[in-house]
Amino acid sequence: MTQLKRQLELAQSMAAACAKGAQLLSRHLRGWTVGMYLPRNGVPGSFIWVDVSGVRGLVDHPLVRRAFESSGAVCGEWCGGTGWALPLSWAGEVLGVLLVAGEAGCELGFEEAQLVEVAASLLAAALVSLRLKEQIQREASLARLREGALNLRVAMGESLARLFIRLAEEPTVEGLFRLVVDGLLEMGYQVASVVSRSSREGPMEFRCNRGSPVSAAEVNYLIEAGLGLVGRVMSTGQAYLCEDCLTDQVVVRTEGDIRSELGVPMWGLDGHMWGMIRVGKRQPRSLNLERDGKLLEALGAFLALRIERNEMICSLRRELDRTRLLHRVVQDLQGAVDLEDLAQRVVASLSAQAGYDLVEFYQVQDGDPELLIVGSSVITREEMLPCSIRLKEAGGGLVSKILQTQRLTVHRCSSEDGYLSFSDRSPAQQLDVPIFVMGRMRGVISVESHREAFDSADIWFFETLAWHVGALWEGMEHLHLLELQSFKDPLTGLWNRKYLEARLEEELRRSARSGQAVCIAMVDLSNFKAVNDTYGHEVGDRVLAEVARALSASVRSCDVLVRYGGDEFVVFSPGAGERELEGLLSRVRASMEEMKLCSVGGISFDYGVTCFSPDENIMDAIARADGIMYLRKRGGR
């Protein structure tokens, strides 16, 4: 429109100049009609007739065309009279035609002809001057436009520099988004918005918007449905420019007055797309990829870099928190005395320190593999066995799948997938991690959470915790084995005196509560020294082992048989009376005397039986049984 306006103004100026020239020339050429023809732009062979009255209209006369095309003066018939057409030439270019017309048979005199030629030259010069003036004005206008564009770029550059300074000082990602959209509005955009992930694997979501009443729900719907400009950018990973929202087939209009839109993706250094920046203007075709696209691309790269750095810092913080939590939990496990104690410590520490909804500790039973609950944050100790049976009858639940995979697994808590709940809570995910002891899976830690999904930091934490629990479990079993060995007699395999003292105290407390009798017998082999002297100590040791086996096969399962020292044995019999115990020992002795033990026959023993009195000292009772045995020995039984 601006160019057409300039052309119209030029034509009007040239027509006015021609009309003025025609008026001056007519004063000297009385009786002659003077006028000029100016070529009409865009209509070949068509001319504008201009005389003293101004523009008369369009004409198309052969005489005029001949003069215009031949670039020389032409005489001929014109409107029933005589016409003399002289081209208005300048530097080889014909700018128009000067026409002097009179009645038929009229001719121009010499002076009049010279006057017409001079007038033609002057008019041509005037027309050229007008064209030069218009060209100068046009170039000046272009220069002003270029200067305005340069000033705009300088202003945008200054705004961008201020924006980057503010971005560098902003610590939070959400604050970065707000600064970016505010800065884009400051640069002249009418609307600006940011779509981004909250984490590396998180979904794309509407994060911030300025200059538009569009809601987060509307934008998130477009993202999920893959519609509009935001859907196109998210699906293709490429910038998209909408020059006019009224005709664009991709854009879904969410702001009625916005006509141009541009969306540019935000790419991280590793090629991960973090989101996109969108801008809009009210004028159609007012955005371009070269200027605006590069600007948004630079801002997007900066935002992606900051988001990645923030993600890395958050990840390091989570790992540090998990490491500290692991340290606290492992500290809580120190001092566990048995598996049940260890399981309850794991459950209590994870519930208190990490705040998980439900924590359960399972022991893997040998034989036909099944899981037994030995620790729980929601099940009492009395309910653990019934719940374990219920779990088995229901197919084992999600946790039983680890018996086949034997590796950490994260499940979605759904009854359709086999989830079985022991509480009224509704967790979102369940994490099961195996516990290995000496290369065998011996237990499982199961954790449920209704919060965010378990991430890589959680997986590292539970795998490391399971390793520590397995090491503690193995250590407890080694300690138990060492303790067991310290209570065993290496020659006979029977319990030793140390075990007897520990067990007697426990049984005496139990008998005091139940009111049952507790009897003890001291047994001493007869003439065992003669066996050693006759057959040697090696045979004597074998005889002691055979005697131990014979006694073990004869006593009750609840009785405790101890090698007290040398050739002396102690039988500890809770719940049995003196007569019952004496009868047992008498039958064993009679049977043994008829046997040959290691080719040695006639092995016999003496014994003394007594029952504990209330509040009696253990050693006093043993000493009394020993005294009764020696009385029998000296008295010939």
Amount of beta strand: 15-25%
Number of strands: 22
Low-confidence stretches: none
Terminal-residue CA separation: 139 Å
The tally of helices reads 16
Q: Tell me, rounded to a whole number, the average pLDDT.
A: 81
Compute the CA-based radius of gyration.
Answer: 55 Å
Strand count, sense and closure of the main sheet? 6 strands, antiparallel
Q: Using the alpha-carbon principal axes, give the shape.
A: rod-shaped
SS-based structural class? Answer: alpha+beta
Query: How much helicity do the residues have?
Result: 40-55%
**Order of strands, widest sheet:** 3-2-1-6-5-4
Set down the secondary structure blueprint.
Elements lengths: L1 H27 L4 E7 L7 E5 L2 E6 L2 H9 L3 E5 L2 E10 L2 E10 L7 H60 L3 H14 L4 E7 L6 E7 L5 H10 L2 H9 L3 E3 L17 E8 L5 E9 L7 H45 L5 H16 L3 E8 L4 E7 L4 H13 L8 H4 L3 E4 L16 E9 L2 E10 L6 H31 L10 H18 L3 E8 L2 H8 L1 H18 L5 E6 L2 E7 L3 H16 L2 E2 L2 E2 L3 E7 L6 H17 L3
Antiparallel strand pairs: 1-2, 1-6, 2-3, 4-5, 5-6, 7-8, 7-11, 9-10, 10-11, 12-13, 12-16, 14-15, 15-16, 17-19, 17-22, 18-19, 20-21
Describe it.
The protein has 637 residues and is an alpha+beta fold. The chain contains 16 helices and 22 strands. Strands 3-2-1-6-5-4 form a 6-stranded antiparallel beta sheet, with helices on both faces. It has a 5-stranded antiparallel beta sheet with strand order 8-7-11-10-9, sandwiched between helices. The radius of gyration is 55 Å and the shape is rod-shaped. The mean pLDDT is 81.
Output the keywords.
five-stranded antiparallel beta sheet, alpha+beta, 22 strands, 49% helix, rod-shaped, 637 residues, six-stranded antiparallel beta sheet
